[in-house]
Amino acid sequence: MEAVDIAKNAVQILDKKKAVDISMIEITEKSILSDYFVIAGGTSSTHVKSLADELEYELEKLGVTPDHIEGRATGWILLDYGSVIFHIFTKESRDFYNLERLWADANMVDISSLLTE
Q1: Are 59 and 65 in contact (CB under 8 A)?
Q2: Structure pTM?
């Protein structure tokens, strides 16, 4: 599965679980770390964990497994799938780290067609 397909599937998975303020950033030209970041918020630490668990479960059903997961006991869970890295935050952690500002020169992907209304 291509990186962009993993990222788009993940956006839909997170949206179905009521993640807030989902964004997708293409960093292919800016970094060798990965091709995409998908950033999402949860309404509580329990919601953040639930989003990460659901994402891991649903992507595994598609045959995609993480290389590494960090932060399960914090306000920021990072799921590293190699070509796509997922950042799931509580509101406080997301505001503090502000990854969108750090990667402002990268390409923000329009995901509006992937989200439910």
Answers
A1: yes
A2: 0.92
